[in-house]
């Protein structure tokens, strides 16, 4: 032991014959002399529960590790799926039954017969509008031509005037007129057998429609392509050429030549 240091040893229960079962040894040491104005001595306590350099012993503190707190799992939110909304069902338009077609044909023939008797264009137009069947208009055109040419004498001019009037009043569309004429032209090979003058009369009606600008030479060409009998085709084209002015023939020279190439 160096000079200036002091050691105090305490042995409780001392004596030779004393018990040492519960005799911890305490050692106090000072590293400096208080009389020299030094710092306060630090004591080392040997034994359980002591202080070491003014800090608690590791035995008192424990291991210093903390168990991590359990993180609560997020609660799962139940998302309700949107229920499918019922889709509105489309209502199919009523189809024309055979009974309706028969009824339309009967009413159409009735109003056409009335027209051929009285020759009143506006009255015929009103009756057609009252039918309210635009999809039937091509059939109406075909029936007007067919009934008119079956008359004796044939009603060529009344048929042409009726069709021109209906187109000018937008009751018939150019497509209605075209399809109706094509329907009649496709049957002309058979009709011409019973009515030999029908091809010529039909050509005059077509010529009047071309002159009124309700149709054109392109329609004449399409009709000729529908026909098979060469004599009937020639009769139709010659009647158209006689009914159309020279100036119009010159204007539509290309279409006219195309028609001539089909006969």
What's the CATH topology name of the domain at 112-260? Serine Threonine Protein Phosphatase 5, Tetratricopeptide repeat
Radius of gyration: 60 Å
Low-pLDDT runs:
1-24, 26-52, 94-98
N to C succession of SSEs: EEEEHHHHHHHHHHHH
Shape-level CATH architecture of the domain at 112-260: Alpha Horseshoe
Number of strands: 4
Largest sheet: 2 strands, antiparallel
Description:
Residues 103-225 form the MI domain. By secondary structure, this protein is mostly helical. It has a domain at 112-260: Serine Threonine Protein Phosphatase 5, Tetratricopeptide repeat, CATH 1.25.40.180. Helices cover 51% and strands 5% of the residues. It is built from 12 helices and 4 strands; from the N terminus they run ββββαααααααααααα. It has helices at 58-61, 98-118, 121-131, 137-150, 156-168, 174-186, 188-194, 198-211, 217-226, 230-243, 246-251, 253-260, and strands spanning 7-10, 26-29, 51-52, 55-56. The strands form 2 sheets. The protein has a two-stranded antiparallel sheet. Strands 3-4 form a two-stranded antiparallel sheet. A hairpin with a 2-residue loop joins strand 3 (51-52) and strand 4 (55-56). Helix 2 packs across helix 4. The relative contact order is 0.06. Mean pLDDT is 78; it is low at 1-24, 26-52 and 94-98.
Defining key terms:
single chain; 263 residues; mainly alpha; Serine Threonine Protein Phosphatase 5, Tetratricopeptide repeat; two-stranded antiparallel ribbon; two-stranded antiparallel sheet; 51% helix; disordered N terminus; Initiation_fac_eIF4g_MI; translation initiation factor activity
